[in-house]
Amino acid sequence: MAALLAWLQGSPLGELMRSSGVWAYGVVNLVHILSVATLFGAVLILDLRLLGVWRRVPLAALEQPTIPLAVAGFCCAAVSGLCLVTTNATEYAGNPFVPIKFAAIALGLLNVAIVARLPAWRGRHADPLPPRHRGTLAVAGGVSLACWVGAAAAGRLIGYW
Amino acid sequence: MHTRFIVLAGTLALGLGAVPAFAHHGWGGQQTEKTEISGTLRKDVSLAGPHATMQITDDKGQVWDVTLAPPPRTERAGLTPGVIPVGAKVRIVGNRNSDPKKFEIKTVRVTWDGKNFDVYPDRL
Q: Which residues in chain A are contacts of B75 at CB distance < 8 A?
């Protein structure tokens, strides 16, 4: 872990972040916050719908804006986050919120991979939706929401350690 | 309707619980009383990352991680790389880490050559 952090800090990206002026970190931090807001906002709407809120709005109508926004938000958050961490990577050694954050992100992504393969997700546009599938999708939405709330909370708390 | 209410209430509760965490992180991990340290500059000011940093060696040989204000604020206080020569005698005032095993201090004022660099004048 320490070796990985030292390598990240010494990488050309870390060098670039440190030599790009006093506002560089703040601006990249802003990009990170906007990306996380985009990802979380999109995920929140879709997950609440899976949990049974706004049942009269067709799932297909919500998927169209939320899924691409979540993917775009995630990618921008990952890139900006990498820039932030390389700036002073060794500072994060021993911070307990770092492993919690990355575990939550990994679980969130694993949940996406699993849900995409479930019969309940494949048949999500059926009308009426069988109660069994409705239950499965609600669990998927709940797990997803828990993962992303956990990732955001642990991420914010890194700075308080 | 009932489940809907529970879900929304739960989400709101989570959101409200997170509110204090959205304030910029404070000096919660630091001692409330000020500490003064005399020493020599070991590592020049770095204006990168969430806070500017430097390192000093105190008169007993202990190395301290000196946390300054965010880079733009530290720069406005006149403290930029190359201003204080490495090895020069400096005195700092700040709030040290509340963990006595950690030699880290959130710094309010750096004094060198009769000059004060007040990165947090409101905290003096």
A: 22
Query: Mean pLDDT, chain B, as a whole number?
Result: 87
What is the ipTM, given to two decimal places?
0.78
- Mind spelling out the 3-state secondary structure of chain B? CHHHHHHHHHHHHHHHHHHHHHCCCCCCCECCCCEEEEEEEEEEEECCCCCCEEEEEECCCCEEEEECCCHHHHHHCCCCCCCCCCCCEEEEEEEEECCCCCCEEEEEEEEECCEEEECCHHHC
pLDDT one-digit tens code per residue, A86-111: 999 999 999 999 999 999 999 999 99
CB proximity B25 to A under 8 Å = yes
Query: Which of B2, B5, B7, B80 is the best residue to mutate to test the A interface, defined by the most A CB atoms within 10 Å of its own CB?
Result: B7
Is the CB of residue A93 less than 8 Å away from at least one CB of chain B?
Answer: no
pLDDT above 60: residue A59? yes
B47 chain-A contacts, CB cut-off 8 A: 22
> For strand B104-112 and strand B115-118, is the pairing parallel, antiparallel, or unpaired?
antiparallel
